[in-house]
Specification:
This protein is an alpha/beta fold. Helices cover 34% and strands 21% of the residues. The protein binds zinc ion (ZN).
Length: 430
């Protein structure tokens, strides 16, 4: 067992689960004042106890980390990334300033088409680049990363991407990885749309059978795929036991959010142009509304209306949308800062959005996103200078969000994965 000893405090997030991640408030962050010890099992990857420091453990301890002066939270969960790619699209930024829209860049063979070409040509380095990016995300506090495909021109390219994700995810010292088959992203320029959609849909069964993905995802948008094509593709995923995610209403309101909710999607993502009907439907739905403010920043488009969604009672998550074109930043610190400064979200709402609700967006909020006995031992340790007490604790979280603080250490599945932290503190009695 691993004991993280003498913690200054712990934000358990237990109130989020009680409220199903709706309208999170400071109390829901579940602050417990230290000194406390968190005890984790590296074999099961779960938390086995949270006890006052000094209390004898009934579990045999093999390792102890000194948590003196530190606070613990659930490590972050990034539920929407396109982290498997090659090349860069820096020039597109400057093309946009010259007056071209995202759609015009894509229509002229740039945008996603560029990344598809670069990714196809970069066979040998893809896995290595993905591993490197995952390590960077982990160092910034993210212990679970969803990785989408979507940069393969053909179904066999997409399968190859999924295989690369499957190979990389088992390497040691990385975040947990959730794999999503984004079969309907963009249509290659030399293929008819109906042919492309049919071939991408035809491999869903095989992908599910070989457990190469947990989710299917589509991007219904003008110039990409229609709502009907996306619905057929997503339903194929559901038939074969995969969860559903949708890139919904980013550029135009196509009714994609409402369609996703009705299909039982784990999350609908983007939502810059979501309809009133869809917002109302989210109030009574377990579907998570995932906002991606870094994309709005980089594309220079309006931000999603987080206050409208939270006020309506929707479950709101935040994710990076990390990709080389519209969101070339993998750190959730930027996303959190934008949520505070542009989406007017409170620290409690942001904390819930990148832990418990992000876990909901990946369909595993029963095990992830809360620090409690039996839950996943994915823990970030932070140093803050804010006063912390049960009566007034939210300042610590506000400091982490606004100052883009990096964690002192991150534990993934009960094992220290990154960070320099002393393990020479005196062992408590066993
Ligand atoms: Zn995306």
């Amino acid at each position: 067992m691993l004991r993280i000893a003498n913690l200054r405090g712990v934000f358990t997030g237990e109130g989020f689960a009680k409220m199903q991640g709706r309208r999170p408030c400071a109390e829901d962050c579940g602050f417990r004042e230290g000194p406390l010890d968190l005890i984790c099992c590296p074999t099961s990857g779960r938390i086995v106890d949270l006890v006052p420091t000094g209390r004898a453990s009934t579990f045999p301890l093999t390792d102890t980390l000194d948590g003196s002066g530190l606070i613990a939270t659930s490590a972050w969960i990034d539920s929407h990334t396109h982290a498997l790619f090659a090349g860069h699209r820096s020039t597109e930024f400057f093309a946009r300033w010259a007056g071209k829209t995202y759609r015009e860049i894509s229509d002229s063979g740039g945008g996603i088409h560029n990344t598809i070409r670069d990714t196809a040509a970069a066979n040998a380095t893809l896995a290595q680049d993905l591993e490197h990016r995952l390590r960077q995300m982990l160092a910034a506090g993210t212990a679970v990363v969803e990785v989408k495909t979507g940069y393969g021109a053909t179904a066999s390219d997409e399968r190859r991407m999924l295989q690369i994700i499957a190979d990389v995810r088992h390497r040691p010292g990385l975040p947990e990885v959730v794999s999503t088959y984004l079969g309907l992203h963009t249509v290659p320029r030399d293929v008819s749309r109906s042919t492309h959609v049919a071939s991408m849909t035809a491999v869903v069964e095989e992908i599910a059978k070989n457990q190469l993905a947990s989710f299917v995802d589509a991007f219904p948008e003008q110039g990409f795929s229609t709502l009907e094509e996306s619905r057929d593709f997503l339903e194929a995923g559901r038939r074969h036991g995969l969860g559903i995610k949708v890139h919904a209403d980013e550029i135009t309101d196509m009714g994609a959010s409402l369609a996703g909710i009705r299909l039982g999607a784990a999350s609908i993502d983007h939502l810059e142009h979501i309809s009133d009907a869809a917002v109302t439907a989210l109030r009574d739905s377990p579907t998570v509304a995932t906002l991606l403010p870094a994309t709005s920043l980089f594309l220079g488009i309006g931000f999603a209306d987080a206050r409208r969604l939270i006020h309506a009672g929707a479950r709101v998550a935040l994710a990076s949308d990390f990709n080389p074109g519209s969101a070339p930043a993998s750190d959730l610190q930027l996303t959190m800062l934008l949520a505070a400064s542009q989406l007017m979200m409170t620290a409690a709402e942001i904390f819930c959005a990148i832990t418990y609700n992000a876990a909901g967006a990946l369909g595993f909020d029963a095990t992830h996103g809360v620090l409690a006995t039996g839950k996943a031992a994915n823990i970030a340790l932070w140093k803050t200078s804010s006063p912390l007490s049960v009566a007034s604790n939210i300042e610590g979280l506000e400091q982490i969000i606004i100052q883009r603080t990096r964690p002192i250490a991150v534990v993934v599945r009960g094992q220290l994965s990154v960070g320099e932290i002393s393990s020479d503190c005196e062992r408590p009695p066993q």
